[in-house]
Amino acid sequence: xxxxxxxxxxxxxxxxxxxxxxITSICTRTPSLGTGPVNQVGRPAAWWDACVASLEDLxxxxxxxxxxxYDPAWVVSLDMGPHPLWLLENLDLDLTxxxxxxxxxxxxxxxxxxxxxxxDVEVVAADWWTPAEEVQKVLDAAGVGSSVTAVRAEAHDLPxxxxxxxxxxxxxxxEYFGTDDHYLGYLTRFLRPGGTLxxxxxxxxxxxxxxxxxxxxxxxxxxxxxxxxxxxxWWKQSWxxxxxxxxxxxxxxxxxxxxWWLWHDVTCSLxxxxxxxxxxxxxxxADGGQMLSFTLLTARKKA
Length: 303
Ligand SMILES: C[S@@+](CC[C@H](N)C(=O)[O-])C[C@H]1O[C@@H](n2cnc3c(N)ncnc32)[C@H](O)[C@@H]1O
Hints:
The protein is α/β, with parallel strands linked by helices. It is built from twelve helices and seven strands. The chain has a single domain (82-301), classed as Rossmann fold, CATH 3.40.50.150. It has a seven-stranded mixed β-sheet with strand order 3-2-1-4-5-7-6, sandwiched between helices. The protein is globular and about 65 Å long. The site of S-adenosylmethionine (SAM) has 19 residues, from helix 5. Residues 101-195 form the Methyltransferase domain. This is Cyclopropane-fatty-acyl-phospholipid synthase family protein.
């Protein structure tokens, strides 16, 4: 029998949409928990309980009710950065069923599965680093293979028809290609007039250019790439000045640093790593929420 992740702490009655891996495939934590009694799948009980306890920290029904439909072990198995479903849920999208949505920088496909299941939309999961065949396997296993198509595509060379999407969504990827002044003009070509643009990207409470230098603890982790991390104000002004979009809304993810730290802490814990030891942990700990969060941006293409 396949054991289910206990959801008692979350008091949640619904079942997960995700058909993710069992805990055994993602939890590589402390071998010292590998002795003692074993559970029904032959795993050390203490090891199993510790993994479940870590994953349960990612079940937050009050804050992220829609993400609750997805097995946290499945989300962790697709890890490429802070909880992508929480970021997507924070974007408060309003999508019409049947709409055609581009998920740009979709990574391993978690956000595309969420879009298809939560909004009943047709999705193109476009990504550069992850082979499309790999993403398609995730989509098929999650039961959305007929409504989501994986495409290997570079963000400046998108293989789509003009005005072919009702919405373009990008979670934790825009910082790699979207800060160039030319980019919004290029990307909006693929959006129908009135279509929605929604982006979640690492954000700052203060502009680095105003500070005059990248804070040392951020530079030690990501170096010059932090120059692409901006305040909501920077994004709002940059997008509004183009005249290409309207109704631009930009804000920091509420408690974004805390969410980021929680994700980092849980994923380190599952790997048996000290969350303060690596470069990301040192950066987040030194920041303590002073500067780091995610910027959440939405706008509509002018009709
Ligand atoms: C930090 S990962 C996040 C992936 C996913 N959105 C998530 O949140 O799990 C950043 C993603 O951006 C994509 N990316 C980076 N540069 C890109 C580019 N020039 N064109 C398309 N995708 C790009 C990468 O392929 C990668 O999957």
